[in-house]
Amino acid sequence: MAQLYFYYSTMNAGKSTSLLQSAYNYYERGLNSQIFTAAIDDRNQVGKVSSRIGLSQTAHIFDDATDIFQQVSALHQSRKIDCLLVDESQFLSKAQVQQLTKVVDDLKIPTLCYGLRTDFVGELFAGSHYLLAWADKLIELKTICHCGRKANMVIRVNDEGEVLTQGEQIQIGGNDKYISVCRKHYNQQQYQK
């Protein structure tokens, strides 16, 4: 039975690496997986999922206007899809998460979503909010804080390394802009001013 999975974490927990490994596992068995990623994520190349360890693969892109169910349905009609993989799923809208539930329930395609749970001020992203509410399986991918504890928060820093506590929710960046920390160090950084 197909299910909707949400693999969530903070930055640098290996979400994209895990997604690419899953895609390879399907490929190795002669099965067809399709990858989607957010058009907004232009850190490496739009339409490409890349991991910090050097793996990458081309992907379909989604933005706010994309009807994911419609796109997946068309792809599925031309060649059976055995698994759908969605990177940067925090950027999905409520409607797009609903569309993914239809991919699972109506098209019977297992769907694995990978994304951040919260932003740099500890608030849920829209896609994460609805995936946490509607996914069949929730799996936390873990990484560690500089102190050795589990990192479950992320802080945003400016070019001088100063912690930012305000700003737009979405600002694309990697290790140059974000640091994964435990809740204790997050609170120390956010509320020390």
Automatic annotation (TrEMBL):
Pfam families: TK. Its main location: cytoplasm. The active site is at E88. GO terms for molecular function: thymidine kinase activity. Gene3D superfamilies: 3.30.60.20, P-loop containing nucleotide triphosphate hydrolases (3.40.50.300). Homotetramer. It comes from Motilimonas cestriensis. It is found in: Cytoplasm. Its EC number is 2.7.1.21. Signal peptide: none annotated. The keyword Glycoprotein does not apply. InterPro entries: P-loop_NTPase, Thymidine_kinase, Thymidine_kinase_CS. Belongs to the thymidine kinase family. This is Thymidine kinase. It catalyses: thymidine + ATP = dTMP + ADP + H(+). ATP binds at S9, T10, M11, N12, A13, G14, K15, S16, D87, E88, S89, Q90. Keywords: ATP-binding, Cytoplasm, DNA synthesis, Kinase, Metal-binding, Nucleotide-binding, Transferase, Zinc. Zn(2+) binds at C145, C147, C182, H185.
